[in-house]
Amino acid sequence: MFSGKSEELIRRIKRAVIARRSVQVFKPSIDDRYGVELVRSHDGDSFVARPVRSSEEILPLVSRETTVVGIDEVQFFDGAVIGVVRSLVAGGRRVICAGLDLDFRGEPFGPVPVLLALAEKVDKLEAICVVCGEAATRTQRIVDGVPAFFDEPIIKIGAKESYEARCRGCHEVPRRATSGSSARSESTSPGRVSSPKARD
Ligand SMILES: [Zn+2]
């Protein structure tokens, strides 16, 4: 987040359009911050994207003439998106995926590690650490004013939460296991609700 990945996806899609390629863009439908039909950057640039509930919906929606497929927020899809991307590429299409490689805990995010390995070209974008000003590669999640625990639910009802860019050194994840799974065995307060949530 804050690294300009939506801007970069939009830039590449627009270049493909200028080059008269036929382009389609998809994104997970959980990302409804700006309405359901746009990929939008923080500075307001946008491109029409088709929201889908799962990656399986993508292939039947890709037109025969489409040569470039963009997928935004790819980290929120499950592992099946890898097969979808491979199928699109095998069909001769160029696929551009944008997403977070690490979640707020600093752990590899969903299908992204495999997509990184399979990709011809990978650009890791950096934000600026809000604490020290170095290049930021991590997303700091803050819930009710303090760093979120490793096992914090993705959505806490009623909690005030925010995200900010941080470098590895300034990234704080209380209860992260340094060996074994001790951190995971600690309990959180009951009654919290977990569900996927989109962010950039
Ligand atoms: Zn820092």
Our count of domains comes out at 2
Total strand segments:
11
Global geometry: globular
What does the average pLDDT come to?
A: 84
Structural class designation: alpha/beta
Describe the structure.
The protein is an alpha/beta fold and 200 residues long. It has two domains: 114 residues, Rossmann fold; 70 residues, Wheat Germ Agglutinin (Isolectin 2), domain 1 (2-Layer Sandwich), CATH 3.30.60.20. The protein has five helices and eleven strands. Strands 4-1-5-6 form a four-stranded parallel β-sheet, sandwiched between helices. A hairpin with a 5-residue loop joins strand 2 and strand 3. It starts with a helix and ends in a 15-residue tail after the last helix. The C terminus is likely disordered. The site of zinc ion has 8 residues, from loops.
Task: Using brief descriptors, characterize the structure shown.
200 residues; alpha/beta; Rossmann fold; Wheat Germ Agglutinin (Isolectin 2), domain 1; 2 domains; four-stranded parallel sheet; three-stranded antiparallel sheet; 11 strands; 20% strand; globular; disordered C terminus; binds zinc ion
Detail the topology: elements first, then pairings.
Elements: H1 5-18, E1 23-28, E2 38-40, E3 46-48, E4 50-52, H2 58-61, E5 68-71, H3 80-90, E6 94-97, H4 112-118, E7 127-128, E8 135-136, E9 138-143, E10 146-147, E11 161-166, H5 182-185
Parallel strand pairs: 1-4, 1-5, 5-6
Antiparallel strand pairs: 2-3, 7-8, 9-10, 9-11
This protein binds zinc ion.
Zinc ion (ZN) is lined by residues 129, 131-132, 134, 166-167, 169-170.
